[in-house]
Write a structure and sequence with these properties.
By secondary structure, the chain is mainly alpha-helical. The protein has 22 helices and no strands. α4 runs antiparallel to α5 (78-94). The structure holds zinc ion (ZN) (2 copies).
Length: 475
C-alpha cells in the first residue's frame, strides 16, 4: 500500500506542470489488475488531471484523457462513469463539438438516472450541463425553460430553502444577464433570483465569500439601472466579506475594492475613495507583507484617489514608495532574459504597474505646472509600455492600449511645441481606439479641449461630434 495516494501524486505532479508524467502514472496503474479501491481512486485521479489540463488551457489533452478513461472503463462504479462522461460533455461544449456533447451528456444522464435516481445531485448537474449546451447551441429559450423546470422541481423535492437550489439559480441568472431579452424578461427576474441566491448562500455558509460575489453581481445590476445608493449599500458588505477572506481568497477583496472605488469616483466622492483605498492598502500590507507588487499597486490606487482629491503631495509620495518597492523587486526596467523567466503577460502586468505609478507622478507634475517632470515621468511610463502587442495575451491588450493612450495624452499636455502636442494626441487617439471602457471618447474630448484652446474651433467641434457619435453607439 503506497503511503501517498495516487490522487495526491497526480495532483502534485500536475501542480508542478509534469502532465505527461501524471498521465503515464494513471495509465500504468489502470493497466495493472484492479481492485475496487483503486478503481475509484483512478476515476478521481483522472478528474484531477483533466481539471489541471483545463486550467492550463489544454482542452484537447483533457478531452483525450477523458475519452481514454471512459473507453478503458477505469471507473468502478457506474455513477463515476457517468460523472466522467459529463466532464467530457462539458469539454465538448467548450470545444464547440456540440453534437458529440449532446450524445455524451444524454449518456451521462441515463447512467445517473438509473444508478442514482432523478433527484440526485449528479443528475441535476447533468441537466444543468444540458442547459449549457442549449445556450451554446443558440437556444437560450430552451435553456431558460430547463432552468425554470429544474428550480421548480428542486423546490418541491428539497424545499424552497435548500442549498441545492444555489447552482441552478446561479446558472439561470448568468443566462438572463447574458441574454438580449427586454428588461422585464431579463433584469427583473435576474434581480429576483440574485436576491434569493444571496439568501440561500447566507443560509448555507454564513459570512462565506460566495455571498460577496452575488452581492457584487446585484450591485452591478442595480447600478446599471441607476439605483445608485441601493447598489452602494449592496456592495459595502461584499467588501467586508472580501476583507475577512483576503488571506485565502484575495480576489473578492480586490474586486469589491475596485467596485467601490469606481462608485466613489463616478459620484465624485474623492474623500470616501481615499478612506476606502487607505484601508485596502493596509489590508494588502498585512496579507502579502509590506514589499509586494500588490502593495505597490494598492499605493498607486490610493495615490490616484489623492490626486482626484487634490492632495498632490500625498499622491506623489505614495507613488515614489510604490516605485521603490517595484524597483527593488523587479529592477528599474523589468525584462525577460535567459536568467529571468517572465511570461509575456506577467511582464506586461509588471510594466503596467510601473507605468501607472509613473503616470500618476506625471499627472501631479502637470497640476504643479512642471512640464519637464511630466516629460520625464511620462517618457519613462511610455518606455515601460513599449511591449510587442502580438506577444501580450488578448485579454491584456486593451488594458495595455488604454495605458498607452493615457500616457500619450498626458505628454500631449506638456509638449514643448504645438506640432509635437498634436502628434502625441493623434497617437493617443490611435491607441484609445483599441482600448477599453470610455478611453476613446475621453481622449477625444481632451484633444477637442486642446484644439479649442488653440483657436481651432471648427476642428474642436468636429471632434466633439465624434464623441457624441461614440456615446450614441456605445452609451
Ligand atoms: Zn434592465
Ligand atoms: Zn451611480
Amino acid at each position: 500500500m503506497a503511503l501517498i495516494s495516487l490522487v495526491d501524486r497526480v495532483r502534485r505532479q500536475a501542480q508542478l506542470g509534469q502532465f505527461s508524467r501524471a498521465e503515464r502514472l494513471i495509465r500504468r496503474i489502470a493497466g495493472a489488475p484492479a481492485s475496487e479501491q483503486r478503481g475509484s481512486e483512478l476515476a478521481e485521479s483522472v478528474a484531477v488531471l483533466s481539471a489541471a489540463y483545463q486550467e492550463a488551457n489544454r482542452l484537447e489533452d483533457a478531452a483525450h484523457l477523458l475519452d481514454w478513461a471512459i473507453e478503458a472503463d477505469v471507473a468502478t462504479g457506474t455513477a463515476e462513469r457517468g460523472t466522467l462522461m459529463r466532464s467530457l460533455g462539458e469539454l465538448q461544449i467548450d470545444l464547440g463539438r456540440l453534437e458529440a456533447a449532446h450524445r455524451t451528456l444524454a449518456a451521462a444522464i441515463k447512467i445517473h438516472r438509473s444508478a442514482l435516481g432523478d433527484e440526485h445531485e449528479e443528475t441535476v448537474r447533468d441537466l444543468l450541463s444540458q442547459a449549457d449546451l442549449d445556450r451554446a447551441a443558440g437556444h437560450p429559450d430552451r435553456a431558460n425553460r430547463k432552468y425554470r423546470e429544474l428550480v421548480e422541481q428542486l423546490e418541491q423535492r428539497a424545499g424552497p430553502r435548500s442549498a441545492r437550489l444555489i447552482e441552478p439559480l446561479q446558472a439561470w441568472v448568468d443566462l438572463l444577464l447574458d441574454s438580449d431579452l427586454p428588461h422585464e424578461q431579463a433584469c427583473v427576474p435576474a434581480e429576483k433570483h440574485l436576491r434569493r441566491l444571496l439568501e440561500l448562500q447566507e443560509l448555507a455558509e454564513p459570512n462565506g465569500p460566495e455571498a460577496g460575489w452575488t452581492r457584487l453581481d446585484l450591485a452591478d445590476l442595480l447600478h446599471d439601472h441607476e439605483r445608485c445608493e441601493e447598489a452602494l449599500d449592496m456592495a459595502k458588505p461584499a467588501w467586508e466579506l472580501g476583507r475577512a477572506h483576503a488571506t485565502n481568497d484575495p480576489e473578492l477583496f480586490d474586486r469589491a475594492t475596485q467596485w467601490l472605488a469606481g462608485w466613489y469616483q463616478a459620484h465624485d466622492r474623492p474623500g470616501d475613495a481615499v478612506e476606502l483605498l487607505g484601508q485596502s492598502l493596509r489590508v494588502w500590507q498585512f496579507v502579502t507583507g509590506p514589499r509586494h507588487p500588490k502593495v505597490a499597486q494598492a499605493m498607486g490606487a490610493l495615490a490616484q484617489a489623492h490626486l482626484h482629491a487634490e492632495h498632490l503631495q500625498e499622491a506623489d509620495q505614495l507613488c515614489e514608495r510604490g516605485l521603490d518597492i517595484l524597483s527593488s523587486l523587479l529592477g528599474d526596467m523589468p525584462r525577460a532574459s535567459e536568467f529571468v523567466q517572465f511570461s509575456a503577460d506577467d511582464l506586461a502586468s509588471a510594466r503596467m504597474n510601473f507605468a501607472s505609478l509613473l503616470w500618476t507622478r506625471g499627472a501631479v507634475a502637470l497640476r504643479q505646472d512642471n512640464p519637464l517632470a511630466v516629460a520625464l515621468f511620462g517618457g519613462r511610463a511610455l518606455l515601460m509600455l513599449d511591449l510587442n502587442d502580438d506577444e501580450v495575451g488578448e485579454a491584456l491588450r486593451p488594458t495595455l492600449c488604454t495605458a498607452r493612450a493615457e500616457v500619450l495624452r498626458l505628454l500631449g499636455h506638456a509638449a514643448r511645441t504645438d506640432p509635437e502636442a498634436e502628434a502625441l494626441f493623434h497617437r493617443a487617439v490611435e491607441q484609445a481606439r483599441t482600448g477599453e471602457g470610455d478611453v476613446l471618447p475621453s481622449t477625444l474630448e481632451d484633444y477637442a479641449d486642446w484644439l479649442q484652446a488653440h483657436g481651432r474651433l471648427a476642428e474642436a467641434d468636429q471632434t466633439r461630434k465624434d464623441v457624441d457619435a461614440w456615446w450614441e453607439v456605445n452609451g
